[in-house]
Q: What sequence folds into this?
């Protein structure tokens, strides 16, 4: 069975990669993976080492792993179409 997104959300880091900041979308998947898209830099991946042991995933959790290269490129993240990501970050 193909994994589906159980929760999709986004945020803006405020970093000035583009005039409108750095836009990040996150998809929490039914198989436990956490996919992300950095729309501003064109980077798509899956976070490593996320287990959710300390409560819900936050923007800070995503950025700490992203900033420390604790992610792997992911074709599923790249395959999520623009209409599936949250409109407020696109």
A:
């Amino acid at each position: 069975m193909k994994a589906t997104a159980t929760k999709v959300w986004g945020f803006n880091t405020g970093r000035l990669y583009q005039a409108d900041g750095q836009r990040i979308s996150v998809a929490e998947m039914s198989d436990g993976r956490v996919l992300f898209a950095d729309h501003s830099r064109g980077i798509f991946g899956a976070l490593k080492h996320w287990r959710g042991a300390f409560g819900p995933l936050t923007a800070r959790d995503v950025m700490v792993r992203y900033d420390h290269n604790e992610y792997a490129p992911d074709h599923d993240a790249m395959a999520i179409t623009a209409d599936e990501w949250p409109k407020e970050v696109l």
In short: The mean pLDDT is 84.
